[in-house]
Write a structure and sequence with these properties.
about 700 residues, alpha+beta, nine-stranded mixed β-sheet
Length: about 700
């Protein structure tokens, strides 16, 4: 949930229709290295950019393929914001590291499951522990390693207090007691889980036997004594299995108050996700909001006088959800809409150093743009509206914002732009992380279609180097997930360039219910996924097929999650495509309500399945199984709790029962996404072999490892 825009923004305007593919490619294809999966896998993956309090150091997580080629490993790199010095790697371990935050003195807090060098080696035990790297550099040292691991850490701007999340058994008195309970379970060989409240799963984890709690601690002793460990204070006790799942945390500049989101699941389908304040000294908890919306991404101003969060309405089957930035007085809980006329969805707010404005991002017309809103008058300025911007880092002097920015053609790179100027172009940081000279053999164009109701439907069209009227390319249509999402920036999971390298053109449409085109576009598809979203995808496909460099007779459609739902829906509505690939897809919505991790949330869009099951049945692709004629490739991860594997199993059974030519690719060790490098390789090999068989008429080539 989350995003926004401002009144009068012209979302239909065209920017440059064609984007250059970086370095110029020679006409002779042999002169250019092919964009193989190995080359794709070798690219560094940048994330979690952070700027030190004094503005002199950027730290970024850089993911690369591990030495055995079986998993991605992430290390932390330091980058000079001025671009004068070359970047350098500041952490190194077999386990890898994740960026936490900077402490007020510039020391870096990070998490890693690397072993404690002062403890007895335990090859079976990997704990995501909290580590401390002094500002002046040197060896990182362990601060805390609770048995259930740590996730999320924030530090006060003007105090040596930090707050972090850790997972403990519900009855554990402290971290030592929790470790004893885990040891007892292991020695007894017990893996059973007991639940007494909803939900019981989330994405790919069971919400038991441990639950997330928040802890505070001071780092003063650890900074002075290399042998010192943190003495954490439990702020929340047994918070319930899902009260603090994925809740962002922040702490006041003086270190006295912690702010977060607290979710109450006790009265489904009404789910209250309120902002709370927790006094560090007394553990007193105050609720700051009224249970009237879903609050998230809370952050406190550097002056400590205000909070800002993303506020998303609950929605109903008749009215789509909407999001805005919400300004809160932490002393009184009084709040106001900070972006009332912004018709996009804001997310990832972060304060300017002077506390007078807030920077944020929002999907906008196929990009993720960066904005600034001023507290005094609510004026919203579009700073960057090209590419996909994330991880905004405002400088302490108020002049510059650093960020990560990717495009359809290039993975994320570190950029900077002015904090105040409107409609700029971001400047890539000199001496950033070298991405290895990528030059994909594709071009990208912006395509506009007209829907059946006259709405403009926008899409990216990625073309292979040899597509022309003389050699038209077969078309692969990819439908994005979400459903509240859009195609913007570089994608590591659904990368179109691995298909264009094979000669396919790839269409990336943003149909109804996509973000970045105003609330009206969301409302058009809300609760009716098989209506406008489907006809919009078809309209975009028709527009692409009018081009002479596209072969209208050789087409396929692919999608994952909501895109997988759409793939299944399309299969039951038309046989115009030669092949359909459906990944982590929804098939039968009524049983899905009971098997997905947080099914009651779907009632805000689809209605009450117990009172109005016909609403679910009307939008279920399963109702049209008898009409499916197109060959289908079904893909699913067995550890997926958001779209459980039961959806794929029923889909597979229904296809087999109705004689549809199909294949089923199952990943027992993956979740909603396919994340392991060699599993990803198998994914692309199988998808491309399936497309080549049915779209190009080639002989089926079974991947060697299958």
């Amino acid at each position: 949930m989350g995003h926004s825009g401002f009144a009068g923004l012209d979302l239909s305007r065209d920017r440059a229709e064609t984007l250059a593919a970086g370095p110029q490619l020679r006409d002779d294809r042999a002169m250019n290295d092919p964009f193989t999966f190995d080359r794709f896998l070798a690219l560094p993956r940048l994330s979690a950019l952070k700027l030190s309090p004094d503005g002199t150091r950027l730290v970024v997580a850089v993911g690369r393929l591990g030495p055995e080629g079986k998993e991605m490993k992430t290390a932390l790199w330091q980058v000079d914001p001025a671009g004068a010095r070359k970047p350098r790697r500041i952490t190194r371990s077999a386990a890898g590291e994740s960026v936490g935050c900077f402490a007020r003195d510039g020391s870096l807090l990070f998490t890693s499951s690397r072993p404690d060098p002062d403890a007895k080696a335990d090859s079976d035990k990997k704990i995501n522990a909290l580590w401390f790297l002094p500002a002046e550099g040197g060896e990182a040292r362990l601060l805390l390693a609770p048995d259930g691991g740590i996730d999320g850490v924030a530090a006060a701007l003007a105090a040596d207090t930090i707050v972090f999340g850790a997972h403990l058994h519900p009855d554990a008195k402290d971290m030592a007691d929790d470790a004893d309970r885990a040891k007892a379970r292991k020695e007894a060989g017990v893996g059973a889980l007991l639940f007494d409240s909803y939900p019981i799963r989330y994405w790919d984890e069971w919400l038991a036997p441990r639950r997330r709690r928040l802890f505070a601690a001071t780092t003063t002793a650890a900074e002075a004594d290399p042998e010192a460990r943190l003495e954490p204070l439990d702020l929340t006790g047994d918070a319930g299995p899902a009260a603090l799942v994925e809740s962002a945390i922040d702490i006041s500049p003086d270190g006295k108050t912690v702010y977060t989101r607290w979710v109450d699941w006790s009265n489904p389908p009404r789910i209250c996700a309120d902002l709370i304040a927790v006094d560090v000294a007394t553990r007193e908890r105050r609720v700051l909001t009224d249970g009237d919306a879903w609050y998230d991404s809370v952050t406190v101003s550097p002056g400590g006088r205000h909070l800002v969060a993303v506020r998303t309405t609950f929605g109903s089957p008749d009215e789509a959800v909407d999001a805005t930035l919400w300004l809160v007085d932490p002393a009184t809980g009084k709040g106001r809409d900070l972006t009332p006329s912004f018709d996009l969805w804001p997310e990832s707010p972060i304060w300017a150093a002077d506390s007078n404005s807030v920077f944020f991002t929002a999907d906008m017309d196929g990009c993720v743009a960066a904005f600034r809103v001023d507290l005094a008058d609510g004026a919203v300025t579009t700073l960057i509206a090209d590419g996909a911007v994330s991880d905004l880092c405002p400088s302490p002097d108020g002049s510059t914002v650093y960020a990560l920015r990717s495009t359809i053609l290039n993975p994320a790179r570190i950029v900077r732009f002015d904090s105040h100027a409107a409609d700029q172009s971001a400047v890539e940081l000199p001496n950033g992380i070298d991405e290895g000279g990528i030059a994909v053999a594709s071009s990208v164009e912006r395509l506009t279609a007209v829907a059946t109701d006259g709405t403009k439907v926008r899409a990216w069209l990625v073309l292979p180097w040899k597509a022309s009227a003389q050699t038209p390319a077969p078309l692969a249509v990819m439908v994005h997930g979400g459903p509240l999402g859009s195609w913007a920036g570089w994608h590591w999971r659904w990368n179109p360039h691995l298909l264009t390298e094979r000669g396919y053109a790839v269409l990336l449409p943003d149909p109804a219910i996509s973000l970045g085109y105003g609330r009206h576009m969301i409302q058009r598809g809300w609760g009716k996924w098989g209506d406008a979203p489907f006809t919009d995808v078809m309209a975009a496909t028709d527009a692409a097929l009018k081009r002479k460099d596209i072969d209208a007779k050789r087409t396929a459609l692919l999608g994952g999650s909501f895109g997988g739902y759409m793939a299944n829906w399309v299969a039951g509505q038309t046989d115009r495509f030669r092949a359909i690939v459906t990944h982590a897809s929804l098939w039968d919505l009524r049983p899905f309500h009971g098997t997905t991790d947080t099914g009651v949330e779907w009632e805000h869009e689809m209605g009450d399945p117990y009172l109005q099951p016909e609403l679910y049945d009307a939008q279920s692709p399963a109702t049209n199984v008898a009409a499916i004629k197109t060959p289908m490739l079904v893909i699913h991860g067995e550890q997926d709790f958001r779209v459980p594997v039961s959806e794929a199993l029923k889909l597979w059974t229904d296809l087999a029962r109705h004689g549809v030519r199909a294949r089923f690719l199952c990943f027992p060790d993956e979740n909603h996404w396919v994340l392991k490098p060699q599993n990803s390789r198998i994914w692309y090999e199988t998808v491309l072999a399936f497309l080549d068989e049915h779209v190009l008429g080639q002989e089926w080539v079974r991947p060697a490892l299958l």
